[in-house]
Structure formats: C-alpha cells, structure tokens
Structure prediction request, 642 residues.
Amino acid sequence: MNLFKKTINQYLIFLVLFLPIMIALDYLLVNHLVYREIDELLLDERKRIDYGLQKDGAVLSSYYLYRIEPIAADNFRPEEFRDTLFFEPYANGNIPYRTYTFRSSVDSQPVEITLKHVLLDINGLIWWILASNGVILLLLYGGLYYIDRNIYQWAWSPFFENLAKLEKYNVAQKEPIRLKKTKTSEFETLNKVIETLIDQIKNDFKNLKEFNENISHEIQTPLATIRNKVVLLLGSDNLDPKEIQNVNTIYQETNKLSKIGKSLILISRIENLEFKRLERIDVRDIIENILGNMEEIINFKHLEVSKDLDTVTLECDHILADILFTNLIKNAVQHNKEGGTISMVLDNDIFEITNTGEVSDIPTEKLFSRFQKGTSQKDSLGLGLAINQKICEIYGFRLDYVRTGGIHTFSLFFNP
Amino acid sequence: MKVLVIEDNKELLRDIKSFLEEEGVICEIAPNYKTAYDKIGFFPYDILIVDITLPDGNGLDIIREVKKENIDTGIIIISAKNAVGDKIRGLEIGADDYLAKPFYMAELNARIKALYRRKAYNGSREIVFNEIKIKPDSHEVFVNDHILNLTKKEFDIIHFFMINKHRLLTKEAIAEHLWGDHIEMADSYKFIYTHLANVRKKVAETGGTDYIQSIYSVGYKFTDRG
Prediction:
C-alpha cells in the first residue's frame, strides 16, 4: 500500500469514527437550543400573563395557554417544565409538547396555570443531522483526498523521481547517480545520505574489482614460471616416483590456479563490458559447432543427444554467445553419466538443455554463485555458471535450473 | 632460426631462452621495450615473441615497428591479459599468433615451429625422426615410407610429439593442444590414452618403433633415448 493510500485510509477511518460523535454532539446541541428557546418563550409568556393579572386582574388571551386550575391555598407544588404528549384530532395522533406549570391567583383564588408549546419532531431531526453531517464529512474527505493527492504528486515528486533512479541504479555502472535536487529538507538530507553511501559502495566496489583483476592478471606470469620449472623438474631423470608424485601435485594445483585466474579475468572482463560488439548470431550454428567440438567426448561417454533446434538469431557478442552455450553444453556432458542422454530444444524464446546425471546436493539458488560444485566433480572449478550468469545479466537473458531426481534442466530465456 | 623474446619477467624469459636453445634455436632476449627496440633496429629476426604489457612501453608498438622494416618476421604475442581486443588488434597489425599466459612451453614451441615452417619453407618442410616422417601441410605421417591412416586427433598428437621430441609432455599440455578449452581434465586423460594406444598400434603395424614413453602418471615423452 503506498503512502497516499495509507494516509487517505487513515482519514477515512477517522471520519467514520468521527461521524457518530459529531451526530451526537449536534443532536445534543440542537436539542438543548430548542428547549432553551421554548422554555424562554414560555417564561416570557408567563411574565406577560402575570403582568396582565396585576394590571387588569384578568388572564390575557394566549395562544400558549393550556389550562387554568384552581388549587387549594396550601398546595405548594413547585413550578415545573415537562414534556408530554397530547392527542391532537387534526393530526389524528399524539404530538409532543413542552408544558410549563406555575402558580398564580385570579380574583384572590390561587390557580395553577399551565402553558404549552409544541415540540419539534426529534426523530426527524436526527436523520437530518445525520444526512447533513454525512454530506459535510463526505465533502471533507473529498477535499482531503484532493489536497493529499496534490501534495503527494507535487511535494513528493522529487522523492519518487529519485526512487526510480535508485531502482535502475547499478553500482557497476560508470556514470555517477544524479539525484534530483529538492527544497524539502528531509528529502535533501536523504539525498545526501544516499549519495554518500553510494559513493562509498562504488569506491569499495571499484577497489574490489581492481584488486580482483590485478590479482588475476598478476598471478599468471608467476604461475607460468612455476609451471615451466615444475615441468623441467618432472622431465629430469633424477626424481624417484614418490618425488614425482609430489611435484605432479604441485603441477596440477598450479594448473588449477591458472584456470581460476583465467575464469576470474573473464568474469571481470564481462563485467567491464569489454565484449560490446553486437552481431547477429545464428544460435543453431553455434550449438551445432559446439556439439561438433565435443563429439569425441559425447561418443566416448556413449551419450545420446536429441535436439529440436529452430533457426534463431540473437543480437550479442559472438565470443560471449559461444562461451554461454559452450558452458551449458559442456555442463550437460560433463555432469552426465555413462550412457546418459542430453536433449536440447531451441526456439525464439528459450533454449532448454536437459541431461541425466547424478543427484546434486547443491541448493538450486546457490548453483550460480562462484566456486559452487557438486562433490563428485573434483576437477571442475564451479565458475562456468557464474560466468553464464554474468553473460545473461548483460543481455537481459534469464537462466533457470530445475532438477527432478537425476534429471537436470537448464532453461535459458531470451526475452524474460 | 633466430628468435627474439621480449618479456619483462626475467624467470619466464630465462625459461623460454633455455628451452629454445635446447631446440637449437638462436635466442636473444629483451626484458623491456627499449632493449627490444634497439635490437630489432640492428638485427633481422625470423621470429619475435612479444609480451604486450612491458614496463616501459607497449608490445604492439614493437610489432608495428618491425612490420615497417621487415614484413617477413613472424610474430607471436604472449599476453597475460588474454583480452580479445588485444588479440584482434595484434593480429590486425601483423602478428601471426597469440598465446595467453600461462602457456605450456611445448605449446609455444609448436607454435614457433609451425610459424617458422610457414614463413621459411612455405609449409613444405618435412619433420623427420628416425623412421617416422611427417608432412605437416598435408597431414600425412609415414613410417618407413608407408603412409599411416590416422584420424585428425591422432595426427595432431604425433605431430605435437615430433615437434617436442625428447621432452616430457604433460597430459595437461597435450589436452590443451588438442582440445583447447572444450574438455575437462578428467575426461581428457582417457582420450589421450585411447588416441595414443591407436597411434602406437598403427605405428607398430607398419614396423615402426614405439617412441612414446609413459612417465608415471604425469605425461609422455617421445624419444629414442634410454
């Protein structure tokens, strides 16, 4: 739920809760005012009647006069206001009245005079109040909605613009991020914090990358030297078999180191976008070519290859495409079992390669990270899929992996 | 054959020099751009082995300089960068081959010999070792003048051995020479073994001697010595 909806929902909840309170208050207020008015009116009428009695000794005719009752001299009922119902023939029903009873005397005879005034239909009032308050709150809500939306669009616009920029930002990119300047101080602070953070991350990232590249480059020449010396040692006739075994181990580990270096260099070169030529690549050609190169090992392992390949062209660098498909096919061959199968499907959207093999113990999500490999394959470096992942990142491909038992499937989506 | 090796790593330089001298090659060395520049001005070389990244300059400039003076000089680039851009640029300005570090000496040797044969003998020169004779340009192998019927890989393997005779060739070097990056080591051992078994059998059938010695689990040596 976005900020705007959240705010507006809060308003709505508040207004809904507020409506009954408002109705109650209004009702009490109106009720109070009405009674006060009526009571004042009746008191005023009493004053007028009292005045008439004093002056003329007769009860003035009054619209509000209800009855005059003689009472006993010792009857001391206090004057009082009451709400009562009277039957009115014209309405054919009971009508609420406010009455006011007070004592006076006509011709020295104590009397009790009662005045009455019709009351408003209080039930009807409540509905009116409800309706009017409802309309007011609705208008209020509409107003708040409108204002809030404008604030959201206008005052928050730099925020959203920057958010969109950050979403698209990649620390690997060369150009620095340019956040939109704003006069809102909180946003400006946020921008500064983000820019500082990004600078730091970028710096670290750059250092790390340079370090990786340098290490990978710089070890190659010493490794070449070590390897040459070791070959000389191995070729000399002075070593006994035990020593040869040891030297051979050094030799093989050196080779492994050199391969790791080469793969890491490749990864960083892909990251640096050194392969930026865009050519129209005939994918089927590439796959057939790779299969040709691997024919020997495929035959050797007695693998059965079935393929359903359409003619598909992709826009990408030829070298990267070759690496990508080589890794996938090599993977399927290498992790296959004797007499297993490989099947490939290629169309405009997807290249899917399925192979039989052993049950892997690597969690699927870890498979693409560097140096992940199944326990059975001691010779593989686990860098092939990391390289593939990098290539996919560049061209916006997606590489998925599924396994069910001993069946492994890699799906390469060209337009995910 | 006269070779100039331009490489700033002294150890590697020494290794290449001693390896090539054992092959009967006259080998001169230049540890930096300046020395290399001076040398190519004075002497003609058959082959130049050039490292692109030198402490005081770029190997590509040396290649350009050499190509201005002597178009026939063969050039092999050796580079730690293994950057495709460098490779393409190098080949464009006239280099003949490119080898990424770290490389096997046997591989460098094979490349130098192949290049020299192409340059100096138009590829027509035969390689002879006792009763075995190879015609590299037509991919033919003769034992006692009988032609052997070899597959491409079998030819490649015996060719590689003939160029690097009397030397230990590790399985890794053989595998890389034959398949490049298309194969994993574990698989390649079996292949090499299978191919070698076929070569041995075919050589023996025509009455040739088996010169391929197995050196423990490390590799093989093609030799008629002890």
